[in-house]
Amino acid sequence: MEGIRERKARPVSEHEQPPEDNVPSQHARAQTGWPVSRLLYTLVLLLSTVLYLFWKTNPGALIRLIEPWYDLSEQLPGVSSPEYAFLGADEVRRDAVVDAFKHAWFAYERDAMGDDEYHPLSHKGSNLTDAGGIGYTVVDSLDTMIIMGLDEEYRRARSWVDTKLTFEVDGIFNVFETTIRVLGGLLSAYHLTHDSLYIDRAKDLADRLMVAFSTPSGLPVAMVNLGTRTPIPDTGNQNLVSTAEVATLQLELRYLTELTDDDSYWRAAEKVMQVIRKAVPVPPLAAIYMDPQQGTFVTSPIRLGSRGDSYYEYLLKQYLQTGRVETGYREMYDGAMDAIHEHLVQRTPHTNFLYTAELMPERTQTHQMQWRLVPKQDHLVCFLGGSLMLGATDGGHFSVPPRAEEFVGTARRDWTTGYELIKTCMETHRTHTGLSPEIAHFRTKNDPQAIADLAPNDWYIKGSRQPTAALDARYILRPETVESLFIAFRLTGDSRYRDWGWQIFQSIEKHCKVPTGGYAGVTNVDIVPPELEDKMETFMMSETLKYLYLLFSDSSILPLTENVFNTEAHPFPIIRPTGRTAFT
Ligand SMILES: *[C@@H]1O[C@H](CO)[C@@H](O)[C@H](O)[C@H]1NC(C)=O
């Protein structure tokens, strides 16, 4: 002990004695260099004034100026320590999430067991159609109970599926929503239990949905009557289909083919991808509407939010689901990410936050088509942060945390954008409730507000100060930010993502929890106490609470290298290559 103390003490005392020969030379310099130091002083003063004025008028540019230089010495963005990753559970926070799930589930089971949707303020359930429910909430919640180890709750839910669930319902259902929530929920329940009940139900449902694909192009129509097995075009939308809706059925149908050895599901899903690959323009940015007669894109907005989002998600995940062998999907994904970086990724002028804008088609007075950039981002886009990081690490196949040298090509760009986007999504949680709005608008350089206001927020919620708040100001229990935090944590083992997720969870507990049971969305994230909406979306139990639970769980649970999560957070296994590779 004493030896150590001595050794430590010595350099300090050496330091305290000023080297003798330096003293005179310093004096000499001070005497002869007086005009030089005055010149220097003036220069420094001038430079700081210029920098200060520059900062005042355009701080974003200054940050951008020093960032690449700063980056040289910095390791990978979003990783605190290149050596250290903690992958164990945070039991206290994890168990708090389980309590939240029980609070949600018990209220639903008490008031509305079996109904499609739950209204926690009026303590009632409702169905999507008058003809009866199809297990929207029960089936969507099954795998969360299995993952959380809630055996009693799960047993009762399984029994409901076994004895009550029927798809013989003479009502009209959305093909995409039914696929990701109900078919996806059944398939992941099978994946986690190997209980054949779920394959039987999944096959029955899929067989009813398959009529949607009977269009000239093979793109499925938006809706189906499950009882009569009739395709129902979306007449309200000129019979068009959403890009995200037709391109977010593939993980589910491919897994079902794997389980049943019936090629028809996989073929129908794959046909959609072939049609899209042929129709996609250069640069490969997909408009949000397609024509199922022609199999072409129609002039419509380009965005990563609603009706666009999960198209991009499933490009990457189809490549991951098929064991990273079918590179055709990866090529489409990489092309789309290049185009997104070139045309949609933007920075805010003051704080340099990264976001993705939307492109709106417009006719000029001379009837020319042109695209207008709209600086707004849906909360839905927050999935993209984690998705980009997942793609950058080839599905989590890098070290944890990744090492800088593992990134080749555009991977480092995607990783950095992904992390920056997560930061922006966290920034949009800086509201009075700590919850993020449905849609965030961003300031641009030319925005008069941004120029006038020198210490501004770089983003705002449209209409949040009006008495009847716009739909933009809502938070409806959406999962996309915590989904990205879960992926980022799994890839890095960095505690910042858990801390951010915990902040969000606490805001949900504080503002969305209904004392009598269940959780409700809020109508305006900037009003405290918020006004609650009488609805608990099914993705609260299937996604938001599942991703939070997994964020705080041991990383060996459902590893990303062995599972792929569908867009409703239902995990499926990675499929070994089977020779079913018509696409590539
Ligand atoms: C929903 O549908 C189920 C099954 O058809 C039925 O038992 C239930 O009463 C319906 N719920 C409501 C609120 O109408």
From TrEMBL:
Keywords, in A-Z order: Calcium, Disulfide bond, Glycosidase, Hydrolase, Membrane, Metal-binding, Transmembrane, Transmembrane helix
EC number annotated for this UniProt entry: 3.2.1.-
Name of the featured protein: alpha-1,2-Mannosidase
Cofactor: Ca(2+)
GO biological process terms held by the UniProt record: carbohydrate metabolic process; ERAD pathway
Disordered: annotated span: 1-29
Cellular component GO terms held in the UniProt record: endoplasmic reticulum; membrane
Annotated TM spans: 39-55
Organism whose genome encodes this protein: Sistotremastrum niveocremeum HHB9708
